[in-house]
């Protein structure tokens, strides 16, 4: 994954790539329930309206009722989630932070709550994640676009290349191509660049759809993103 480390001070109305992995590269998602719990936490904090009474872990994993759940606060007005992908031993989030501490609030709540759930379910103790999450600022539209593609191509090592959309249900790709829709994921922030206007600030004209753009990166998913990381360092 891109190797630019965490920023301690976050800017308002700025885009960030957030990622982290399991301590000692261990798996942090073992089965479908684990993925479901993490995604349900994202959904809970980022939905426009959240009137649920029960804790999200109680909903996603009824047999794993949290002992000391983090306070549940709606962060919809502080963070826009643009893209995500959960992999067995790491995760990627592409977000727009609308307040100076939106990322801090979201990641503190989700990381702590998920780690408590995971440790309880698998009868383990100690740190689950490899230190603090990393957050890299996205400085231009081209970087934003190529990063979304890089995130969605992460599962290539686990699924067949011809079945990227349906074989990996733990990414936001299906929201981008219209298979799913939800108010807590904002694909339109990227998809607006594929509306094919008369002019474009970045070279997307040769791609008729976002799906074409993603498929064009299958042979070398990291090529464009590595170049952009160097240019924006």
3D architecture notes:
By secondary structure, this protein is α+β, with helices and mostly antiparallel strands. The protein has one domain (14-231): Alpha-Beta Plaits (2-Layer Sandwich). The chain is built from 9 helices and 4 strands. The protein has a 4-stranded antiparallel sheet with strand order 2-3-1-4. Strand 2 and strand 3 form a beta hairpin. Helix 1 (32-46) packs antiparallel against helix 3 (102-121) and helix 4 packs antiparallel against helix 9 (223-231). The radius of gyration is 17 Å and the shape is globular.
Discrete helix count: 9
Task: List unreliable stretches of 5+ residues.
Answer: none
Radius of gyration: 17 Å
- Percent of residues in beta strands: 5-15%
Indicate the structural class.
alpha+beta
For the largest sheet, list the strands in their spatial order: 2-3-1-4
CATH topology: Alpha-Beta Plaits
